[in-house]
Amino acid sequence: MNNFAKQFRLTAVTLVIVLSIWSFTECENSGDGGSNGDNSAVIDIALIEALPSPVTGETPVTGISENAQYSGTVTWSPNHSTFAASTQYTATITLTAKTGYTLKGVAADLFWVAGAASVSNGANSGVITVEFPATGAVPVVITIAAIQGVAPVTSGTPVTAINPNAQYTGTVTWSPDHSTFAANTQYTATITLTPKNGYTLQGVAANFFTVAGATSVRNGANSGVITAVFSQAAEVLTVTNTTEWNNACNYIATGGNGTYNTSKAYIIMVSGDIAVPIVTQTFGSVSNVAITLQGNGTLSLNSQGKMIQTSSGQTLIIDSPYLTLQGPTDNNTPLIYCSGKLEMKSGTITGNVNVNSEATIYGGVVFANDFTMSGGTISGGSSVNSLLHYGVAIGRSYSYGGGVYVNNFTMSGGTISGSSSAQNGFYNISEGGGVYVRGNFTMSGGTINGSNSSCGNSTTSEYEEAVHSYGGGVYAGGSFIKTGGIIYGNDASGTNKNTVSGPNAYGHAVYLKSGYYRNSTLGASDNLSSSSPLPVNSGETLNGWTKR
Hints:
By secondary structure, the chain is mainly β. It folds into five domains: 3-30; 31-138, no CATH class; 141-230, no CATH class; 235-326, no CATH class; 354-547, no CATH class. It has a six-stranded parallel β-barrel with strand order 17-19-21-25-22-20. Strands 23-26-29-33-37 form a five-stranded parallel sheet, with no helix packed on it. A five-stranded parallel sheet has the order 24-27-30-34-38, with no helix packed on it. The protein is globular, with a radius of gyration of 36 Å.
């Protein structure tokens, strides 16, 4: 063999040895997530971060929190766009080692995830299987609108939290941020709610929440951040007996007027059961004042007459779920008589029987010029023969509004139930068993049920054709706009049913002065606007409405 051949053979052998060593090294380092040979450190960060437990309605994450040693992707089984209720989910995490680190040498089941039921991985592997407990049931949308415990009180210390309820807690911040509330100062409270377990803000309507004493309350849709503006800090008057009630009413009556832009604000805080005397003008003739009734107890009328009567420049606000205004079973006037504005946010008004021989009776329980109802209950039952019943107006000729008589009515919540308007005599007209609205009625929520409008036959043939009973649930004299809420009809079951009875009886659920009536229930989606189609010809029925 010549020298050239020997040299070529030696070079080829050397090349084979070098290639073999390189190949062996590559095989040893493949699959560890980092190709740094013997200098790679074994991964030892066991906690996988930013992989939250599945929550019903939330969106699954697709990656973990990257750290100094590795990053990772996440896939889910079942693969849903949002987590479903009552479902067990498994996450598969695939780690990628960073430069200088390797999965070779990682022990089996090294890794762990907070909140997981089980976590497992193979030795030398970055594929991790994470099983989570089943998600919870579908959360219930928050339904408690009234936020308690926030109203500013002159010289009082600003609260930092609301009164918690069964559905949520909340924090409060104030602007201006004073150590104590100053007189004649406008305050804005920012309330941030936190739903309790099983409840959600998703589905809460815009401007759903209410705050006693606030002149403006706003929240966004699906939001628990509420802005409540108070025109000025309210003055709190605590009453525990009849004398203190009389003193509080007199204090307001002699306290002077508010201004057009800034009403004087008072809170009458009721504690216990108190007998209230009849009045002609509860708070005198002062104007631009707002009186809020709160507390825990019962105000009951101790004789025939009005429990509360306000003048045109006064606003009465009833706002406590633990407060009841109780009327007698043999009264001769509405229990609450408001020539100004009435707002009912929570609480109960019940038990007033307006029995009167006057030609016309207006309102069994409430008479109001301008009534806004977002919560609470106006309730009663009726027994016309014995006259021992609740929420009833009974007279000889005209009876309007067994539960409520109002010029203009806005209803977004609450319940009016078990009221009746009844007539017996020679010229009998009964309209609005639950509610009689003389002007405009806008309904976006709430319930009107269990009411009746009835009249007997005329005692003389001269008036037989004029006798009538209209609107077991509602009689609307002006415009009627409905975007929500329920007015039950004669197709409802049990105590929910609204009815009319007697000769010429129309509209178990609703009667419109324009001559349209509805007997069947108006559910939450059975709405009506100024452009809604209605029947044209007499006797024709369209969309549940009939034209007389």
